[in-house]
Every structure is written in C-alpha cells, then in structure tokens.
C-alpha cells in the first residue's frame, strides 16, 4: 500500500496507540474550526488519546469500534483537517451520528476537551458538506412543514388537552392571551380575556403527540400544586433535534418563533416536563437572547419542589404506605443532569414523598449512564434496536438495545421496583427494553409518580 492509499484508509488513522499518533497529528490550518475557550484547553486538538473516555462511552462498549468513542472521533477530525481523509468517506458518517452526545466523555476528560461542543460542531460542518442521513432529511422537512419531527399535522398538536379538564382550561387561558378582542367572539374561544397567567407549560413534541399521558400527568400535578398555568397555543418544536444533529441554522427560526411567543404571553415562569426542551431553552435559547431570556425556566421537578417548599406542603404516595414503601431508583437524564446540572432537585422531591423509598444506582448524577436515546441516535438508528442481549452489533449498526440493557441491569441490581426518570426519551427507551425483556421493573416518568401523590 502506497502512502496515498494509506492516507485514505480510515482504519489506519483511527488506531489505539500513543498520544497524537501517526497520521492524526494536529494541523495549523484547520478546515474545521476548533472550539476555543480561555486557556485553549477545550479544543479537540488538546486530545491526548489517553483512552479515559473509551471506558465510559456506551456506544463504544457496544460496538468496540475505535470510531465510536471521543478519542477516535477526534482523530477523524484531525485527519479531516490534514486532508488525510475526505468528508465523503463512507465510514465517517456513522461515527459522526452514532454519538449520543451524552457528555460522559467530557466529564472524565483529564485535559478538559469540550467534546459536546466539538462533536455538535463536527456534525454542523459535515451536514453543510452535504452528508446528511436520509432519516434526518425527513425529520428536517417535517419540522419545516409541520413544526414537529413526527410528520404529524400541527393542528393536532393540542389534541392531548382533551384528555383532562386541567389541560383544556390551560389551553383556553393560552388562547385568550394571544387572541384579539374580536376573536374572543368566535366559538372556539371559551375563556374570557383576563389578566395574564404568570406560568406557562411548554409541552414539547413527544409529550404532545406520542406520550400524551405525560403532558396530562404534568397538568394534573400543576393543579394539585395549586398553580394556574397556560399552554402556549402557538408552540412549535423547540428545535433540540436540529441543534443536536448539525442543523443549527434550521433550528434558529423555531427558536425565534417560540421565544417571541413566550415573551408575548407575558409569563414569568416556563415549566418543562421534557428535559430536552428544558436544556434547549436553558442553553441555546439563552444564547440567542444574550443570556437574558426575560423569563425563568424550570424543569417540572425544580418547580414542584419550589412550590412544595414555599407552601410547606407534604407529599404522600397514595398507592403504598410508609410501612410498605414503593422502592424506586432514579435515572439522571443527560439533558437535565450533565447538560444543566440538575441532580438534586428530583432526588429531594422524591425523598419528600411518604410511601416511596429511593435507592441509588452505582452510576448516578454526573457519572450516570445514558439511556441510549440521545443525540438523535434513536431517531436515526432506531430500526436496529432489536432484542436485548444479542451479540455485539457491527460498526455500521449503531446499537441502542445493549446500551439500554446495561442501564436496566444496573437498575435491577438496586432491588428497585420502579425506574423513574425525568425525560420522556429516557422513559420511552427504557420502557421499550423492560417490555421486550419482560423485566419485573416498571419504568415511569416522574410526572406520573407525582400524579399518584397527594399534596397537602
């Protein structure tokens, strides 16, 4: 093999070896602009290929492919910079989009490489070069045409509100806030226009179209807390899936529309039951607004705990007793935990519930394992999520099942009866595994747990 052929061979570039080995040496003129921060310690060029991130990457520990963990992916970036490989190399695309963007690698990186920023930027560059997975094109087009990634009509977004009186009333409040006085005479506007409601509930696409039981549960929990709230009648997708998959430019229009909608509503607090929406508002929307949103953002767990403390409320789980508590373990969503640093509020809320006992998994908080659904991986590679416990999948078959299986096994080791999360994506992924595996563990969202409680 001559030198030219060797440079095109990705397997020779992505090797297990000493720091900055072989053809992956750093370049001075970068095609992909590295993400620089004070001290220049966050750039991918500072990666020493020490291998620490290899051991915490659940994708790598499923595929055993050197292109699937942060160090190997950094070698790909360096090789692209040096033009040792091209963007059209067929082996690059799976590596770029099989990352769950869970952030475990950033947590353990000894030199502080901001892998989340680096890999999201890599996706953005790859997409601009025209390398877009076919399924991502479908999602992008659906968001443009329907304001959601599920190919559902926008008009059906609020059908879930018909499921409970609390949600229906919240939607009426939202509509009365946004319509003109003349429009109030129309038949579909039943609530009189009055003082602006100070709390808004941003539902998100998945809980609006796929998991209506979670948006219903959240609405009922807010009612139990004595909180009057509105549902935004002009809500669109928050854009999280676009930010995570390199389509940031397409996401900005959604950001603008949603941001202006919330500001126009006059609410002071916005509540999220979806951790993905919450992190997108907390991070990307804040950046759009120059770190001054003009309203407060809360995950449901944060807001519920805030109200419980302010009103000095007690919480009791109605289906079990203090002497026979429900044994649960809590799964930290990446978007809520590593992205936004929300670890303690959900736990404090759970510990306040009489009739519930919390058991921690070995990997928790900043070191919690990802459920496997993040970074667009579930949407782009969900077709190969088959039986739990199968042999390792090949490099081109990004595997979700075994990642989820590992997380579920860890939950089983706690002797817990219920695995609770604060993210609809985590709930769905882990529920699928439990169902396929006939696991005795029940998987539920924290909104469902709280809805089975009384506040007094």
Brief digest:
With 456 residues, the chain is of the alpha/beta class. It has helices at residues 3-7, 10-13, 60-63, 70-81, 92-97, 104-108, 115-128, 134-146, 165-178, 205-209, 212-224, 240-244, 248-265, 275-288, 300-310, 344-351, 377-381, 401-412, 424-436, 446-451; strands at 199-202, 230-231, 269-272, 296-299, 315-317, 326-331, 353-354, 356-358, 418-421, 442-445, 453-455.
Secondary structure topology:
Elements: H1 3-7, H2 10-13, H3 60-63, H4 70-81, H5 92-97, H6 104-108, H7 115-128, H8 134-146, H9 165-178, E1 199-202, H10 205-209, H11 212-224, E2 230-231, H12 240-244, H13 248-265, E3 269-272, H14 275-288, E4 296-299, H15 300-310, E5 315-317, E6 326-331, H16 344-351, E7 353-354, E8 356-358, H17 377-381, H18 401-412, E9 418-421, H19 424-436, E10 442-445, H20 446-451, E11 453-455
Parallel strand pairs: 1-2, 1-3, 3-4, 5-7, 6-8, 6-9, 9-10
Antiparallel strand pairs: 5-11
Helix pairs in contact: 15-16, 18-19
List keywords for this structure.
456 residues; alpha/beta; Fumarate Reductase Iron-sulfur Protein, Chain B, domain 2; Rossmann fold; four-stranded parallel sheet
Report the CATH topology name of the largest domain.
Rossmann fold
Q: Helical element count?
A: 20
Portion of residues in beta strands equals 5-15%
| CATH architectural type of the largest domain | 3-Layer(aba) Sandwich
Measure the end-to-end span: 75 Å
Spatial sequence of strands, sheet with the most strands: 2-1-3-4
Query: Percent of residues in helical segments?
Result: 40-55%
Largest sheet: 4 strands, parallel
Structural class: alpha/beta
Shape: globular
CATH class of the largest domain: Alpha Beta
DSSP strand tally = 11
Low-confidence stretches: 1-7, 15-41, 183-187, 383-403
Write down the Rg: 23 Å
- Mean pLDDT across the residues is 83
Q: How many individual domains?
A: 3
């Amino acid at each position: 093999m001559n030198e030219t052929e060797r440079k095109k061979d990705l397997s020779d570039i992505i090797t297990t070896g000493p720091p900055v080995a072989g053809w992956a040496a750093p370049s001075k003129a970068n095609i992909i602009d590295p993400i620089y921060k004070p001290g220049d310690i966050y750039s991918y060029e500072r990666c020493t290929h020490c291998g620490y991130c290899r051991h915490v990457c659940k994708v790598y520990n499923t595929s055993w492919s050197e292109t699937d963990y942060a160090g190997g992916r950094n070698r790909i970036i360096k090789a692209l910079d040096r033009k040792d490989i091209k963007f059209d190399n067929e082996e690059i695309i799976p590596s770029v989009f099989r990352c769950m963007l869970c952030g475990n690698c950033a947590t353990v990186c000894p030199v502080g490489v901001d892998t989340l920023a680096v890999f999201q930027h890599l996706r953005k560059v790859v997409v601009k070069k025209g390398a877009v997975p076919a399924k991502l094109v479908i999602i992008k087009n659906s968001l443009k045409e329907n304001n959601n990634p599920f190919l559902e009509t926008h008009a059906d977004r609020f059908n879930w509100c018909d499921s409970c009186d609390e949600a229906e009333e919240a939607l009426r409040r939202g509509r009365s806030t946004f319509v003109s006085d003349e429009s109030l005479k129309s038949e579909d506007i039943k609530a009189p226009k009055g003082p602006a409601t100070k709390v808004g509930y941003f539902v998100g696409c998945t809980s609006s179209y796929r998991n209506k039981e979670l948006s219903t549960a959240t609405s009922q929990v807010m009612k139990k807390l004595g909180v009057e709230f509105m549902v935004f009648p002009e809500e669109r997708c928050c854009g999280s899936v676009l930010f995570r998959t390199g389509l940031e430019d397409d996401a900005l229009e959604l950001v603008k529309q949603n941001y202006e909608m919330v500001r126009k509503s006059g609410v002071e607090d916005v509540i999220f039951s979806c951790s993905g929406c919450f992190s997108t508002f907390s991070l990307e929307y804040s950046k759009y607004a120059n770190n001054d949103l003009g309203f407060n953002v809360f995950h449901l767990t944060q807001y519920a705990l805030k109200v419980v403390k302010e009103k000095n409320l007690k919480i009791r789980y109605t289906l079990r007793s203090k002497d026979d508590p429900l044994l649960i373990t809590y799964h930290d969503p990446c978007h809520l935990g590593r992205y936004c640093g929300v670890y303690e509020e959900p736990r404090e809320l759970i510990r306040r519930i009489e009739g519930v006992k919390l058991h921690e998994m070995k990997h928790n908080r900043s070191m919690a394992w990802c459920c496997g659904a993040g970074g667009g991986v579930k949407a782009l590679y969900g077709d190969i999520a088959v039986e739990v416990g199968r042999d390792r999948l090949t490099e081109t078959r990004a595997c979700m099942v075994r990642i989820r299986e590992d997380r579920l096994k860890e939950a089983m080791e706690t002797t817990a009866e219920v695995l609770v999360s604060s993210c609809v994506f985590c709930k769905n992924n882990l529920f699928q595994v439990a169902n396929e595996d006939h696991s005795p563990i029940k998987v539920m969202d924290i909104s469902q747990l709280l809805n089975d409680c009384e506040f007094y």
